[in-house]
Amino acid sequence: MLNILVTNDDGINAPGIAALVEIAKEFGQVTVVAPDSPQSGQGHAITLKNPLRLKEVNVFKDTKSYQCDGTPADCVKLAKYVIFKNKTIDLCLSGINHGSNASINIIYSGTMSAAMEASIDGIPSIGFSLDDFAFNADFTAAKHYARIIIKQYIEHLDSANTLLNVNFPNLSQELIKGIKVCEQGDGRWEENFQEGVDPYGGKYYWLTGKFHLNKTNTKSDIEALKDGYVSIVPSWHNLTDRQMLDKYNYLEIG
Amino acid sequence: MLNILVTNDDGINAPGIAALVEIAKEFGQVTVVAPDSPQSGQGHAITLKNPLRLKEVNVFKDTKSYQCDGTPADCVKLAKYVIFKNKTIDLCLSGINHGSNASINIIYSGTMSAAMEASIDGIPSIGFSLDDFAFNADFTAAKHYARIIIKQYIEHLDSANTLLNVNFPNLSQELIKGIKVCEQGDGRWEENFQEGVDPYGGKYYWLTGKFHLNKTNTKSDIEALKDGYVSIVPSWHNLTDRQMLDKYNYLEIG
């Protein structure tokens, strides 16, 4: 029986995590540790200046569940060191996120950072996201494909598992063409701050923006999603740009 | 005259950013946009649910400076789209952080995420960190080496600049042996939550931990710092684990 940790960044009451818990329970003993409120855009933030609270809650049927007032990465740290302690986490599943985490979004994503926080410690880990920000998004097709991916992933578990960034296109099951293993698409957000004045006369700036694809690449997650495929990007936490290592020899001294 | 953006995650009043502004001014026209309070551990968090406030302040002599109530990444987004607008940012310098951002710390670091936020848009960008968490850390040697690195980096600017993660050992200038270009060290934090009870009877968990090196690697930033060198890791925002792309062929459908 696999010990499975389920978490997310939209908060423990989001429909996306309920969909993931439902599928995860088919594969093992599920424990949920998730934020008590939405944490989108938290990236890999951790809470250093304040204490964290952990509360056992009864959100999912027959499933041990905890909510935490910290970030998604905090949730996974608490799961590892307080809840599971010496018990092994065999698999971490994060999501299903309401909104795409393809391309550069992995950097800003609490969902992917939670999954990464597990994978840093060698825990096989998958983050799932649906390309639909709506609270009442339809997770039917996402659940179908999440089940297929988790089943295969578990059958192939070995000592060198990578974090997987899985994104589902916002399409019905019949329209999804399949699953592709991809590279992270080369994109960025073009910001466009909404400026306004608050009720007390203070000027504010509210972050908004538009995703922009820098380069087309038929192997990228963005293109796979556009073509109607579920995208999977094997990802990790080593940010070294290896191709550039030699470029900076001129900086070396001694 | 280069337009230089200086930011950090320890807040606009931290001694580390004052040290960096002092050096940066030798190389161009400096504008500071930094958080109004310490933001360590914020990773690549961005503020979506709340508006941001930006306030022009008079913290550094003869230097246009703004403080923002958001995260380090928010500061850079505001700098790009509100303060600089159509003016080019030629160089972004982040830090000098009070504390190391070598190895896995790059993931959690607001300093490095601010620098990365600039580099995502193609802005040449360097994050600097000193391996000393103290507020009154001695930045003398860090300033000396930051000056050398910035000078060389500017002389070699081209269309393919990488984000640099620069860490200074906590040593006096005479004891530093030189500068090494490195790979991100393979390490992780072993958490050890401090448990306690607050004044109202509520149980809390306070994150603390110990850095653990998984694998020794003579090319890593951790080893360079231990050996008395300034470490530089060319870094980027593409988290694809390219060596693992083929491993997951079994997941493909269609």
Mind telling me the CATH class of chain A? Answer: Alpha Beta
List the total number of helices of chain A: 6
Number of strands of chain A: 13
Q: Which structural category fits the helices and strands of chain A? A: alpha/beta
Question: What integer is the average pLDDT of chain A?
Answer: 96
The CATH architecture of chain A can be given as 3-Layer(aba) Sandwich
Superfamily at the CATH H level of chain A? Survival protein SurE-like phosphatase/nucleotidase
Summarize the biggest pleated sheet of chain A.
Answer: 9 strands, mixed
Strand order of the largest sheet of chain A: 3-4-2-1-5-6-7-13-8
Quaternary status: homodimer
Most extensive chain-chain interface: A-B, 84 and 84 residues
Look up the CATH topology of chain A. Answer: Stationary-phase Survival Protein Sure Homolog, Chain: A
Following the backbone from N to C, one meets helices and strands of chain A in this order, namely EHEEEHEHHEHEEEEEEHE
Instruction: Please estimate the helix content of chain A.
Output: 10-25%
Tell me the distance between the termini of chain A.
Answer: 54 Å
Give Rg of chain A in angstroms.
Answer: 19 Å
Beta fraction of the residues of chain A?
25-35%
